[in-house]
Amino acid sequence: MTNRKLSLLLLGLVLPVAALAAPSTEILASRCDGMYQFTDLDHAVEPGVVMAGSEGTPAYCRVRGVIDGTIRFEVTMPLEGWQGRLMFHALGGSAGRIGDTTSLLGEGFAMASTDTGHETDPVAGDMFYRDQNALINFGSRGIRLSTLAAKRIIAAFYDDEIDHAYIWGCSTGGRAGLEEALRYPDDYDGVIAGAPAPAWASELLSWSLAGARVQQANPLTLESLALLDTNSRQRCDLLDDVADGVIARPDLCTTETLQLDVLLCEDSQTEGCLTSGQLETVRFMYEGITDESGHIVSHGVSPGGESLGDWMLWVTGNPAFMPVSAQVGSSAVIEHLLHRTPGFKLDDFDVVNDRHLLTEAAASAELPRGDFTKFRESGGKLIVYNGWNDVPIRANRTLAYMADAQLLTGGPQMMAEFSRIYMVPGMLHCAGGPGAWAADYVGPMVEWVENGQAPSRIIATHPGITNWFEAAAAMQESADWHERVIRAGAMRESAKQFTRPLCPYPQYAQYNGSGDINDAGSFSCVGK
């Protein structure tokens, strides 16, 4: 018996041959309830529910379930217009909730997401890291098993196999996408990984702890961030010969270029300057951490956008609505991960020499080295994007990981066959910033996977929203986030929108010398 016939028998839906070729809307609607028959010892699946359509979203069948008693997942399938596609949304942060499962239904996708095996708890916080099973689920198992379940349900619902499967996420959602490509290379045809958090536990958490320590010793203030932002623009905006408030060549914007010493307070000066201690904190943020031999173990933050929310979130905090900064909050995750280590004390943790403890404790959530050979051989395509001004997932950290991947995967030409990296000038962590940061990566990926058209430059828009908090709220964690933020920015009376090309790294966008600097057509992608 074929898998196709078996799926129909499981659902009690033996249909005429003509109907099998193209199930009608009515047939699909009636079939929705029967999805509960995918329940077994490992899967608890609810009867599907037909959800009414709305503007831009067709009516669809929503199926919810739980795997292994802990991993919640959701699958949505449009009743008309399905083009054989799946888009899986991998959430960032600590996950703990279901992501976007509706934004692309009108574009021919079925969609799916998972909470990765735990629920966000405002009281307990990230205590789930102490549970080894929950940590493994968060690392990769939750998305892997939810992917398999979603594929089975979608294939049975439409009585047709999925033609093309895609996964998208940013931050730890981007890490999850790379986990899929590296550990389960046959799961997805296209992976879109934003700010993919390489060395999530060993590097990001160690850097966060170090940052919390220097901030506690010599704290920066919100006024300090405004001063740094102004200084970065004054020193580095014109490195690309265009005065637009965007540092388009962050690779040239070094601490020497910033001339930080001119910000030092003179005798009795208390405003518009930084103390010598605060300058130490600033240098840490820009320069990162090196070991005894001078090797970089944590890259610094590229200058730019310091006053626009990312530094506030991670470094200074904001007493108005944040009890602690994200760096301080991340320190608690170290305690959770290492709570079984005999004699462990956070105050004694060495941010350079003790990183291996985190690698060992969080092995299931750490990316392996980036050998994408099997993913390439399976025909998979990869797009990685990262904001140059990202604070937690610093740009040069992502580039270092991908450079190592290039060595492991056969060199530049081999990597170019299946992957593209887009470094976004003036973009903060997954959203916000002074640059053109709103871009569609889904459309180019679909063209690449389904039509063989590899992307070159991608046109990005500055939507008129710069603040990270406002940008994150406007995105609504949706796969069509670029459209949402552009619409949200256009509704603001004072918003200024402009476009720029995003160029495959190591190329960058250079002004042609004439034409409107607010138009991407006035720029060309050139090599370094």
What does this molecule look like?
The protein is of the alpha/beta class. The chain has a domain at 203-361. The chain is 36% helix and 16% strand. The chain is built from 18 helices and 17 strands. Strands 1, 2, 3, 4, 5, 6, 7, 8, 11 and 12 form a 10-stranded mixed sheet that branches. Helix 6 (200-217) packs across helix 12. The relative contact order is 0.10.
Task: Give the gist of this structure.
The protein has helices at 3-11, 17-21, 25-32, 132-158, 172-183, 200-217, 222-236, 255-258, 276-287, 310-316, 326-337, 355-361, 373-377, 395-408, 412-418, 442-451, 468-475, 481-490; strands at 43-45, 49-51, 60-67, 71-78, 85-89, 109-114, 164-170, 190-194, 289-290, 296-298, 381-387, 419-424, 438-439, 458-462, 498-502, 508-511, 523-526.
